[in-house]
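An example makes the point: we let one protein speak, the chain in one-letter code, the fold tokenised, and here it is:
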Amino acid sequence: MTKKYILTGGPGSGKSSILLELEARGEHIIREASEDVIKRYQSRGIKKPWEKPDFQKEILKLQIQRESRIDKNIERVFVDRGIPDGLAYAKQGTDTYVEIRREIRPYDGIFLIENLGQTETNEIRREDQEEALELELKLKEIYLSEGYSIMKIPVDSVEDRANLILALAGLIDGPRFG
């Protein structure tokens, strides 16, 4: 059975950069679904797809699709945001929120990537620093409420953050720092 490790955290915390570092080291990864959904809509001229009523459902669908396609022979995979991350963006009590909760799967480790101290907005990342910090806290609460323990990854170089993740996952001996 493939082990799934989630990298979660607020926008602009460096999750994608860490994921690319892990991939460069030979690890299997799953990219963030929301960014790809946003890019797909924006390529069609829809500037703010997050305003569409089924936006979170589309992200959920792509996330489920990506997780279900993991080759069973792969020992482990690192995932940029897990299904529970969608709960931070969906309104509690809505059909979307209920659907996301229903689709939550077991994960083998949750790494909370701490905020870098600044968040730059762009056409894909609309949250500012204050919103990014609020989302980080909300994500932490969501994973804890789902019964997960969280391993915090503090601000450091991308290489050292990747080393810490691998060490906490038991894949290397202790953190190796540059």
Q: What stands out?
A: The chain is about 40% helix and 15% strand. Residues 129-145 form the longest helix (17 residues). The CA atoms of residues 18 and 125 lie 17 Å apart. The helical segments are 15-24, 33-43, 55-68, 95-103, 129-145, 158-168.
